[in-house]
Amino acid sequence: MVESNNDPRAELLFADGVKWVDDAPDESIDVLIIDSTDPVGPAEGLFKTDFLKRCHRILKSGGVMVQQSESPLYHTGSIIRELRNDMLEAGFDSVATLPFPQPVYPSGWWSVTLAGKAIDVNAFREQAAANHALPLEYYSVEAHRGALALPPFMRKAFAVE
């Protein structure tokens, strides 16, 4: 992974994320990844509509935001559902939550929620795969579709058909 830290297409920042987003130019970012602490105390604002609107402002059309979104087992009906709703209220066109195993956390299961600006995050990898023939050994469109599949209790909580 160290090699990817030197990729000229990416910039890793360890800074005050709120200030950085506030100072960033409009529509200047392709992908915004927020791996914050839990949404309490100083990080609480990173999960609210006001901050998400500012993230939407700096994303380019076709841009994607990814936010860690807590445990599906403990927070589907509260934090995750509220984050999804706040992302849509902030102006994002689509949202998708991806649950995944994470054995170091208490529930053993965690999630990230994606939000797209002028792009459907439920299909953007399929669109990219159709446009680029990459020689991949592990990733496939089918594997990505599987990652987007929500268990019934999450589908019900998000009112996803």
UniProtKB/TrEMBL annotation:
Keyword Cytoplasm: no
InterPro entries: PABS, SAM-dependent_MTases_sf, Spermi_synthase
Positions of the catalytic residues: D35 (proton acceptor)
CDD domains linked: AdoMet_MTases
Domain PABS: residue ranges: 1-117
Domain of life (superkingdom): Bacteria
Similarity-based family: Belongs to the spermidine/spermine synthase family.
Protein name as catalogued: PABS domain-containing protein
